[in-house]
Amino acid sequence: MQPLRFGILGAAQIARKLVPAMRRAPGVVPVAVASRDAAKAAAFAREFRLEPVAGYDALLARGDVDAVYIPLPDGLHEEWTLRAAAAGKHVLCEKSLTASCASAGRMVAACRAAGVRLMEAFMFRFHRQHARVRELLAEELGAPLAYYARFGFHLDDPANIRLRRAWPAAASTMSAATASVARDWSSAASRPPSPRSSRWRRGTAWTPRATRCWNLTGPAAATWPLASSTISPAPTRSGRSRGS
Amino acid sequence: MTVPRAFPAKPRAKIIVQQGRRWPRTVRVKSPEPYAAMVAAFAAAIIAPGSAPYDFEADALAQARAMEAVRRSARERRRVELREIA
Questions:
Q1: Number of Cβ pairs closer than 8 Å across A and B?
Q2: Nearest Cα to A116, choosing from A3, A4, A2?
Q3: Which of A98, A184, A227, B61 has the lowest CB atom count within 10 Å?
Q4: Is B27 on the interface with A (CB under 8 A)?
Q5: In chain A, what are the domain boundaries?
Q6: Which of A26, A172, A222 lies nearest to residue B40, judging by beta carbons?
Q7: How many other CB atoms are there within 10 angstroms of residue A20's CB atom?
Q8: Is the omega angle on the peptide bond into residue A30 within 30 degrees of 0, that is, cis?
Q9: Range list of H helices, A25-163
């Protein structure tokens, strides 16, 4: 069977994790990487044994690429997803795909019309830790009573691309991850809390450093505090769920 | 952990997923394994239609709705009903 040949649209940091993962995935072959900066594409391509391509359009025009991975800043996701769909390429797009329903609708419609697939890259859904949490929620704990998540990383460089006003990437990326986990965990527990469960796992010391906080309250008295920070003293990712 | 005032009762169970903790012990949070699994699932859905673990496009639309709800709630300083994001 013909493997799925991937092109990487942008030499972003996160692509450094995805390219080796593509090599480990059955039926997948990473082929080329594109950057607006030819030298950057060449350096990335040399490091990961890919073909360098100058410019994203040039990569979309290649006949030896079936799908593209888009790790570009969030503000560019719609434009390049639409272009990739028009070029007949399947799209694996880094989170957050978009923060707008209208934009998501345009992207999904374009991909469906072109007969290509569109996936938002939420790695956690395939992580065995989260699979275990889903298992606990579904089989032992039942619907959670509270959910708290924080996700932060260093952003102390004012020139960082994530801080551009036109591309609100940082906050969007992190709230996407925490919101997606809340959605995933809430759907995993379709039954009421189990009265017999007594599992209690202790974690490390808790120091809230959230700069943004949303409370998500569900039916049956379930309360879901959801937090995300754009600038954190230390890179942190955690999710906690409480139930009875 | 700060328990919100609306919290109905003292919880009797807690789940923690945290970066750097080896739980389950066989998989580290930073392992490339889940990235590879994600890419493999995407490829499988294309190569063998119908084999996707979930509807990618429907999930993208639902996630965008959740993002809008979360942003709206932050702007309005109010809580979001779970049904708005689920």
A1: 260
A2: A4
A3: B61
A4: yes
A5: 4-121, 127-242
A6: A26
A7: 15
A8: no
A9: 38-48, 56-60, 77-86, 101-114, 128-136
Token pair 């329903």: residue: A101
Q: What angle do CA A78, A50, A154 make, to 5 degrees?
A: 55
Query: What residues in B contact A7, CB-CB < 8 Å?
Result: none
Pair of tokens at residue A26 = 């059955």
* Record: contact B8-A136, CB cut-off 8 A: no
Distance CA B56, CA B51 (A): 11
Q: Where are the domains of chain B?
A: 15-53, 55-86
B67 near A172, Cβ under 8 Å?
yes
DSSP bridge partners of A67: A6, A90
Active site residues of A: 95
Range list of β-strands (E), chain B: 13-18, 80-81
Residue A193 DSSP class: P
Q: Which residues of chain A have pLDDT under 50?
A: 192-238, 241-244
| Separation of alpha carbons B85 and B59, rounded Å | 11
Structure tokens given for B7: 């919290």
By the 8 A CB rule, do A18 and B39 touch?
yes
Q: What is d(CA B41, CA B52) in angstroms, rounded to the nearest whole number?
A: 6
Contact A103, A194 (CB under 8 A): no
Report the topology of domain A4-121. Answer: Rossmann fold (3.40.50)
Q: A138 and A190 in contact (C-beta within 8 Å)?
A: yes
pTM more than 0.90? no
3-state secondary structure of A41: helix
- Give the separation between CA B73 and CA B81, rounded to whole angstroms: 10
Q: What is the ipTM of this complex?
A: 0.79
Question: Which two three-digit tokens encode residue A75?
Answer: 């503000």
Distance between CA atoms of A214 and A56, rounded to whole angstroms?
37
| Element holding A94 (H helix, E strand) | strand A90-94
